[in-house]
Hints:
Layout: H1 2-14, H2 20-44, H3 51-54, H4 69-90, H5 97-116, H6 120-141, H7 147-169, H8 171-182, H9 186-203, H10 216-219, E1 227-229, H11 237-243, H12 245-251, E2 252-254, H13 264-292, H14 296-316, H15 325-339
Antiparallel strand pairs: 1-2
Helix pairs in contact: 1-15, 2-4, 2-5, 4-5, 4-6, 4-14, 6-14, 7-8, 11-12, 13-14, 13-15, 14-15
Amino acid sequence: MEPLIFGYIFFETFQKVEIWPKIEKIFEFSSLFVSVPAIIQKFTGWGINNPFWRAEETRRAVSWFGFPNAVGLFLAPLTVICFAKFWRLIFAKEKKTRGIIFCLFVFLTNVLAMFFAKSEGALIGSAGGCLFYLFYFFIWQNNDKTREFIFWRRVFFSMFFGVLFLTFCFPISRNYFVEKITLSDHSGQIRRQMWSETWQMLKDGRLITGAGLNNYQTAIKKYHAEGFWLDKNQPNFKENVESDESFRIEHWQPLEIYQYPHNIFLNFWSEIGLFGLLAFLFVSAGGFYQFAKSDSEERKIKIVFLSALSAILIHGLVDVIYLKNDLAIIFLLLICLLNKKNK
């Protein structure tokens, strides 16, 4: 309830006031407050309470949070916002060198923090948000015909298609890409198992109501498996399981009951039911609608909010992007800013 109340007060108070520069600075310094400790943790292990995440060979930064994914969940949309500001300053009439350097520093620091937290979903989400912004910036937003703009537009498209081409040329990168998209890697298989159990729970009389607020862990117990087999599609998998103990140990994955099912649709469906899910989707779609009906000047600012929202939604396909106080406030801030009108 607190983020909803905050969002309402923010919208009613600031909906016709241009406060974006102040919000932007808040986002920048907030992200540094999270990313800098995460980078320090990577090299020192300081402040990581979990022994597995603290161990040097398996270290994952947690910053001020209790778990690594929280770093990426917080930083992904803010990284996109900082990235967008960097490009906006590059093509500003009056270039502010300090601002450009600071934005680049914050962006790189955030990316490093997410990398050290090993939050792949956040990295993919922020990459998606940044690409969303760049495509709009270089194709639709600007009619800039200056030599500098044309040069950078060519650089962007050359790099984009070059990386895409090289990704599919080399088997290692191609297989990695396919594994992530099809959720065939280790974490992907865990999520698919969770989603399967959650869907069974919802189908069993909870399609409308869901499990209830904070009741997912209790409701899912009946449908939860203690573990499952990884890579079941390997040749001779059944024979290897029956005959090779080391193979069984390697491919058996114990599965705990998480607080949420780690999917944007199933999270809301299980917490607040089908109508709650539809309400969240309606609010999210409303952000895109408000952007579409804005005039060209408003879009130049709102594309930043929309790109950050896109990063959140992409990341939400494999994680919990709203049901946490800081994440809920960031989401609602973006929705309010997308609904904001110029004076």
